[in-house]
Every structure is written in C-alpha cells, then in structure tokens.
Amino acid sequence: DGGITQSPKYLFRKEGQNVTLSCEQNLNHDAMYWYRQDPGQGLRLIYYSQIVNDFQKGDIAEGYSVSREKKESFPLTVTSAQKNPTAFYLCASSRLDSYQPQHFGDGTRLSIL
Amino acid sequence: LAKTTQPISMDSYEGQEVNITCSHNNIATNDYITWYQQFPSQGPRFIIQGYKTKVTNEVASLFIPADRKSSTLSLPRVSLSDTAVYYCLVGDPSSGTYKYIFGTGTRLKVLA
Description:
- The complex is a heterodimer of chains A (113) and B (112).
- Helix content of chain A is 0%, strand content 50%.
- By secondary structure, chain A is mainly beta.
- In chain A, strands 2, 4, 5, 6, 9, 10 and 11 form a 7-stranded mixed beta sheet that branches. Chain A has a 4-stranded antiparallel beta sheet with strand order 1-3-8-7, with no helix packed on it.
- In chain A, β4 and β5 form a beta hairpin.
- Chain B is built from no helices and 10 strands.
- Chain B has strands spanning 9-13, 18-23, 33-38, 45-50, 53-56, 61-64, 70-75, 84-91, 100-102, 106-111.
- Chain B has 112 residues and is mainly beta.
C-alpha cells in the first residue's frame, strides 16, 4: 500500500530540547512538504523540497530545520529556537506536475512538557 | 503571495446540497484548484481537483468560472459524516509552481 507515514503520532518535548519528526513516503513523489496546524486554524507551510538535497523555506520556517538526503524521507527538526512548538505537524508529498494533488500523512502532535 | 478566502463556517442539514466558495484572485495560469477535507487529528484528504469549467466525481462537483478567480465545491446530499473542515488549495504564483497555500478553511457542520 502506497502512502505517507509520519512517526511518532504523539511526541513530547522538554523545553530547550530539539526533536525530530519523521516522514517517509513510498509513492515515489519528488516533492515533499511540512505544515504546521494550530488548534482551530488552517495549515501553514514550514518547508518544502522538490528534489533530494534541496529545500526551501515556507512561511514559518524560523525555529525549524529539515533535510532531504533520500527521496522518500523528509525529517523535520523542531529546534529549541522555536518558542511555541506545540502544534499538529503534517507531512505531504506530491509529484512535480502542477496539477497533481498533495497526499498527506496522519500527522504528529507535539506537546511541551 | 496568492491569497484565498473562504467562509469560516457553514451549517447544513442532512440530505441538503452544500456549496462552499473559495476566492483566489492571483491564481497562476497553469495552476489547478484542489479541495481537501479534514477530520480532527487527521491529515487532509483529497476530494476533487479542476482547472476550469466543471469537474464531477463520485463525492463532489467543482465549478470554476472562466476567469478562475474563484471556485465552488458542491457536496450533494450531505450526511452527518461530512462534518469536517474543507480547504481550498491553489498554486502560489509568486514562488513557483510547487509552493501551495491553503485557504482559511470552512468548518462545515451537518445537522440531523
């Protein structure tokens, strides 16, 4: 079954710690994305990547970092510089054709202890 | 940056047709319009996508006027399970084809 796997589903962080959220896809998609969703709000783009070893900042990249060493993987690190990291994080992937929809994972909910 | 605007919320009764409109004044020539459905604590799920005129699939229809500055998602005969947030997605013409911006989302509540 092709799809996007995000892990873990729930994650807790102590203040001052970095945490890494995993996103893996087996859809052979070139593009991958990370979004943040706050309670009752829409999705905001953090980072996106169109090709291995390349990525671009989205609208709210401060306090986050990503890597794209493999086509199928796009991990997101929430650094200690992110002052308000509690949120629901969603990963997506898509083909590079503009008319292809994005496919989403089921998200990781990050909370501060 | 391209901006989209949707109604914040809508209520409907079971069995009715629901129409949700999204405004997107700065859509790029080659971009498509995509609608997603999201339930609480889940990732958005693709509903329908189109470029112009009308598109229909087994769950919804999408109407896009000639100027493409707006689109309307039509859900026929909604049920309680259609209660969700609906997002309109278009390409971002200022940042290239692959950076998409979600609309504000419309919270649809279906009443019995």
